[in-house]
Amino acid sequence: MFQNKLHTKTDEELMVQVMDHHSHAAIMELHRRYSQKLLGYFIKMLQKDVDLAQDFVQEIFLRILEKKHLFDPEKKFYTWLFTIASNMCKTAYRRAPINSLSNDGYELNRFSNLADDLAEKAHFKQLLDKSIEALDHGQKTVFVLRYMEHFSLQEIADIMETSLGTVKSRLFYATQKIAQQLKEFDPRYETQLFKLN
Are residues 12 and 80 in the same domain? Predict the structure, then answer.
C-alpha cells in the first residue's frame, strides 16, 4: 500500500521523504525511476564501459544519500541528479583519460535514416561513435545530453552549472566537429546535423 503511494509522488516529494525521514522506500522508488536512464547516460559517457557504468549507477544513489542535505526541493530532482552524474564523469575523465574506442552502444535515432543498407549503417555508426568519442569532455557531455538523453538546452546548462551561451557554443562546436567527420562518409550528414541545432 505504501509502495503504491510512492508511485504517485513527484521526484521532489520523494527526495523530501529521503531528507526528512531517511525513507528507504523513497530512494528505491527514485532508483526504479532513474537507474536505466542513468545507466544509458553513463555507458555513453564512459566509452561504453558497462561494468563501470553499472558501478556509477550504484555510486550515484549512495552519493544522493550522502548529499541529500544539498538538494533544494524547489528545484527539479532530475537536474540535480544529472549534475551529480556529470560531475562523476568529469572526475573519471580527470583521473584516467579514456582512450579506447568501440563500436557498440549508441542508437542512431535521427541520424540513421540517411543510411541505405546495414553495411552503410554499421559504417556510419562507427564513424559517429568515433566522432563523439573524439570530442572534449564538455562538448561530448552537451552532445550526449542533448541528442541522446533529450534534455533541453536550459536543463543542460543547469546540469553542467554553466551558462546557456556556453552550452550553445559547446553544442555548436561539437556538432560542427561531428558533421565534419561524417561529411567524409556522406556530405548529407553535414547538412542534416546542422539542422538538429
Answer: yes
